Request: fold
Amino acid sequence: MALEPLSQKDIEDRLRELPGWAVEDDRLARTFRAPSHFAAAALVVGIAAVQDELDHHSDLTLGYNTVHLSVNTHAAGDALTDRDFALAERVHALAPVHGAS
Reply:
């Protein structure tokens, strides 16, 4: 997967395909709300498995019933790349499995 930084237009186009996601402080980010703390913790475990599979890791924050994820690509000078959006797409698909939205 390419490590080239995405253009602003590419980022905007890709964000349209990921409702709820935004760019915050040069990082792709989203907060998910789960029905319980246990469901939120299970989502974190699921995200960790996806990150290991993709060999691309985000910052995760677990709250009582929330999970906040933010990511950029360090190897591309902390820019947003295809790798960040690939991770976001996988997490976006995974969240409903844990009841998160």
Summary: The mean pLDDT is 96. The longest strand covers residues 27-33. The radius of gyration is 13 Å. The longest helix spans residues 37-54.
